[in-house]
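Practice record 12: protein with hypoxanthine.
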Amino acid sequence: MLATSEFLTHLPKCEHHVHLEGTLEPSLLFQLAHRNNIQLPDDFPKSVEALQYRYQNFKDLQDFLNLYYVGMSVLITEQDFEDLAWAYLEKSSKQGLKHVEAFFDPQGHVDRGIDLELVIGGFRKALVRAEKELGMSTKLIMCLLRHLPPSEGLATIKSFAPYYKKGWIHGMGLDSSEVEFPPELFTSCYQYARSSLPKEVHYTAHAGEEAGSDYVRRSLKCLGISRIDHGVHSADDPELMKQLAERDIMLTVCPLSNKRLQVVDDVSQVPIRKFLEYGVPFSINSDDPAYFGGYILDNYLAVQEAFKLNVDEWIKIAKNSVRGSWVSEKRKKDLYRMIDECERAYSTVE
Ligand code: HPA
Ligand SMILES: [Zn+2]
């Protein structure tokens, strides 16, 4: 039976690939620029509409990142970080989001002179509130910016170690410009993190978004990670696909992002069917929803429009995304139960 949009709206979802700074909607961006007296660059679009229009015409990842870093410059106070994350959580909850593992880019803030306490404090407040008021489970993943020197990545790990120890941050990732900054540059950062942070911390990295499948292979080899962010180019390498399936390495796929950043011409070129055929686990995510034209449900709907998946396939995707989540077995059981309930409710409606 073909899945409908009503079913997809209600299907319990987990998001593993969303940059909180990438949830900054143009309206909030201008509001915060005003509230904090921030002068945006002269060539920055002047209105919500002009900015939205600009977001529809990214040439590539770097073209997006250039705007993304300007965008985050309006985030100054703890309240700003809280407001940003809360707007994302509230909106996504209405789209069936039950569990989120959200990225943030501390170097993008600390390097502008923002106190790390304000960044993490604001995000934490919104996440705790979502757990209480929206019934979501939440985790925070700190990313290192790969265009900055690894020595600065190391210093970032050291300065955020107290928050890992308090259990406020649960994972470490690697993002920003990919091709010119290969994974091997960050081997020592990941080694240091594994030897000094609590053993419960999980590790991931962006790989195979603009770069080829060899960056996925090499990231797995040198960074000791258990998940790959994007990884869509893995599909070009059958041996790697087998390895991902055997080792149960989840790919956090972001279809609308891939389209906006010209990784693919169309969502139908995201290798969803190949991942299903090879048994490569993947989740579907929004990446930077304010910039790429859609939140989590919009990404599910875009995949459905392109691939016409059936209910069984969606249930499998939803359950795989629970299995790949960094949460307790107890919470996983709850999430599986919610998915089973959704499946039952949907089959009785039909
Ligand atoms: O899609 C992305 N890729 C790399 N870095 C990023 N930072 C925010 N979004 C992205
Ligand atoms: Zn990303």
